[in-house]
Amino acid sequence: GGGRGRGGGGGGGVALAAPSHLAQIARGFSEELARLEDPKAEKPVYNMLSMLAGEQKGNLEGATVIADILSRKLAVEGGGLPYLWLVDSIIKNERGLFLELFEQRIARMFLKLYHSNPQRRPKIVHVRKSWGGRFSEATLHAIDTEVARIDAEHLSRKRGASAMRVAPVSARPLAGDDSSHALAMAEAELTSGRLDPRRRSELLALVNELKRQHNHRHGAPVVRGGGWAGGPMGGGGPAVQSHYDGFGSGGASHYQQGVSGSFAPMQRVQHHPS
Question: Can you give the pTM of this predicted structure?
């Protein structure tokens, strides 16, 4: 009868891999994935791995094996930025079932990497800013909210427990980068909708003070623009400045600032452009 047969039947529906093939898929992909352990891995390696994953994009069980391997690398084993670059390449170039599969996993993967790699956070966020329209607004909002919380914790450790109180901020202006983080955290908390009147008053005073400091340093008001592509500001959320300045503005791909300073996104029509 109808329905989906294993190995690709079902009249064009999603194919399911025969169980005997799943271990082979996992082993083959894992062996090739080890190439990313080489810090000199460049564009052809990412192209090859993306296309290898793409062989399973219409195969539910095979694609799930690939997604689970990459999820484990990032969310459990603490794999580095190259694995996120590979995931990014797969969802943009291979699409298929991978968009749905990584939708369920991407927040945990991304946030584990972001939390454990403070020195590489700008590059990690550079990947995030290109995901508008690929993952749901709810997923992106969850990522952005947790990133703001992690940034706030980082600022608190850097400046001490009193860094977010109004009086110390007034008495000792923060450096430009720190005040941007402080403003991001304060505005994100203001929009959370779970504040008592006293805390809201404190945060409003803090935001005004940080804007005053910015105006004093730069002679111009803080500009509140369009916001993160596909993220909370794209849906009317908080206009937060932090690592996220420039979200939604296009610009060079993160790959061009990534591996060896020259890695660019794979072009599907021409896999190995000169």
Answer: 0.57
